Amino acid sequence: MQFGIFTVGDVTPDPTTGRAPTERERIKAMVAVALKAEEVGLDVFATGEHHNPPFVPSSPTTMLGYIAARTEKLILSTSTTLITTNDPVKIAEDFAMLQHLADGRVDLMLGRGNTGPVYPWFGQDIRQGINLAIENYALLRRLWREDVVDWEGKFRTPLQGFTSTPRPLDGVPPFVWHGSIRSPEIAEQAAYYGDGFFHNNIFWPADHTRRMVELYRTRFAHYGHGAPEQAIVGLGGQVFMRKNSQDAVREFRPYFDNAPVYGHGPSLEDFTDQTPLTVGTPEQVIEKTLSFRGYAGDYQRQLFLVDHAGLPLKTVLEQIDMLGEEVVPVLREEFANGRPADVPEAPTHASLKASEEVAAA
C-alpha cells in the first residue's frame, strides 16, 4: 500500500498573522513538502492543477520534473489533471516526457476540477464536462498505446497519422487514476478500462464514499478485470496532529475556519465527525484512517492533505515528520494484517512493465 501527500497549492493568508505567502514562496514550499515526504519515507507526492487564484499549480509537470531531479524514490503524481480542458495530445506528451526524466516514477489522476469558469477559459463548455472526460481519455489512451493515430471526435480537430512524442518509457504508459467526488460516470469510466479509482473523500461522509467505491468495484468485475476486491482504489485524507489532541484542535481551528472551499461553513467538530478530517494525536489519525477499510475495503493508496489554509511551512513539515515517524509505519503494518493475498499492490512502473512482458511472452 502506498502512502503520500497531496497539495492543492492554495495561497491563503495565515489567519493568525494576516500574512499571505508570495506565489514564489508557496511554490517553493510545495517543493519542500515533496522533499520532506521522500526524506521521511512516504511513497507519493501529488499536486493539483488550477488556473485561478488563490491557487498556483497551473503547470504540474513543470513542478514534478523539478522534483524528479531532486528525489530518487518518490512517486510523482497529480491530485487532478484536468482531462476536460487540457488537450489530450499535450497530456500524452508531457507525462511521457516526465516518465523519462523520473525513470518511471510517474502516474496521474484525471479529473474535472472544481472550478466552473475554467471551461470557457480553455474554450470548452462545462455542460459537456462528462462527455469531454470520456472522449479526451479515449484519445489519450490511444496516443500512449498506438505509434500512429488517426482520430476524429467531437471536441478537437482530427488527427491524421499522428505520433505522440516521446513514446512512453519502456512502452508502458503511466498508470491512470480517475478522480471523482460525486460522479458515478467517472467511477464507471475507471471500471471500464480497469484503471484506478481515487475518491477524494475529504469533504464527504463515509456512506457516500462507500457507495462510490462499491459502484466502481462492481463495475470493474463486470468488465472482466477481476474480482471486486481486486479493483485499484485510492482515498484522500486530511490531518492535523499534535501530541495532545486539545492542542491540535486549538492550533488548527483558525486555519479550518478560514480555509478555502469549506471555511466559514460547518464547525470543526461537525466536519471532523462527518468526514475523514482528523485533528488530534497521531494515535487518533491511525485509528480513523484504519477505519476507512471498513467502508472502502482493502485499498492501494492513501494520500493526506496537510499543507493548506495558510499553515506555515514549518508546521507543515512537522506534520509530515509525524506522518513518517509515528503514523505511516503503524498504518503499513496494520493494513497488511489480514490483507487477502489476491488483493493487488498499488501499481508502479516496474509492476506494469512486468505485466506487459508476461502478456507478450
Automatic annotation (TrEMBL):
Which superkingdom, per the lineage? Bacteria
Signal peptide location: none
**Pfam families cross-referenced by the UniProt entry:** Bac_luciferase
Q: Which UniProt keywords apply?
A: Monooxygenase, Oxidoreductase
Q: Which SUPFAM superfamilies match?
A: Bacterial luciferase-like
Provide the coiled-coil residue spans: none
**Disordered, as annotated region:** 339-361
Q: Name the InterPro entries on file.
A: Bact_Lucif_Oxidored, LLM_FMN-dep_put, Luciferase-like_dom, Luciferase-like_sf
Q: Which ranges carry the Luciferase-like domain?
A: 1-293
What protein does this entry describe?
A: 5,10-methylene tetrahydromethanopterin reductase
In which organism is this protein found? Answer: Streptomyces incarnatus
